[in-house]
């Protein structure tokens, strides 16, 4: 790397990374500086994030970066910014302390909170205010769970920060709430792009906790002295990227243009979750959108990410975890190979079945689901692996139909970005099930989106279109053309009735 480099701290639900990115010869170049595991921790009934461990790894990664790009290096660190998954948050008190743990969205404490909320404000009203998909993991329901539990953090809070904002606060000392991630709370209006006073009022959430959202690309501050001492990064600007990982991933989809009114491409940001949707200039807060349970999340520069949250490779990952507990640990490649060799459509599972959100054992849960839906139990592991992938492709097919209905457009290309773009079997299944061309890559879409937004924020790039053109020129993609599409018709009918 040469010239200005930007450090992207990219935290996912299973791993975190510190990545340095810069431009050389008209291409984005990335260098992975540090990679670490991330797992929620179960303690008694609670499911918590190890935010201190994450911070320790972040500062370790920053230290390595500061060493690598020191005064003698051809590259100089121009900024740092953090992205994470959505919906999770921390609460700070008046003494600038984080006094309660940061909970994971799969925390059982949230169960039933959506119904509790709707006893106070109707589903229709919540949707009209926020345009968001209804999911129990949403921040709104987590906050209500905290309130109901008499949570010590909740009782003493003076401000609310999303997960990435927490790390920006640790880095710079500044309390900000970045807009794309704020949009995942189900407390923000996608029209005014600020907090819904109505919902805050109805649910007794103090408006003083919620500062006006900061747009992606804003310089929040500089690394504070304690961080400079620990890492060697001195006077480095902290620049908010699109802190919601999905917003960063969508930013780096290698397509032309930005937020077209009639999109002819859609994306699947494929990882632990699959986020499938389009990028639009305006939110779509319509009865059809509510009925199809799509979400209007905030994209960069005022765009909307109209998408559906689909329980993604989580199931595949959790089957592996269950096998590990049983003493066998196939590699990802072995799992895909066995899936490819297994008979097609012998077990159909809906990745969004509520029972699969946080089961204690994914295999037991799938066996129970098979019996509940009148299907034979999986005869071997290959069937299980295949069912996890086919279920996703079938869900994508239905989601694509809904997207075209919602946007009244016809979509010819599906861009798959993120880790799942490496899964060739899933990419081909997606092309076949949806009968559309699939363009897979880049894999590190989120980190790339984080880096290019920092480049926009620091004036190195001037627009989203320019950033996308740069991404297109920098990273190879792989195209899959649909084959054997008819084979998916009958299973899709069965799947729709599950
Ligand atoms: C993807 C993601 C999704 C969000 C889910 C939970 O990593 O950010 O967009 O719905 O995680 O936060």
TrEMBL record:
The keyword Plastid does not apply. It is an enzyme of class 2 (transferase). Residues 6-251 form the Carbohydrate kinase FGGY N-terminal domain. Keywords: ATP-binding, Kinase, Nucleotide-binding, Rhamnose metabolism, Transferase. Residues 266-456 form the Carbohydrate kinase FGGY C-terminal domain. The keyword Transferase applies. It comes from the Bacteria. GO terms for molecular function: ATP binding; rhamnulokinase activity. GO terms for biological process: rhamnose catabolic process. Belongs to the FGGY kinase family. This is Rhamnulokinase.
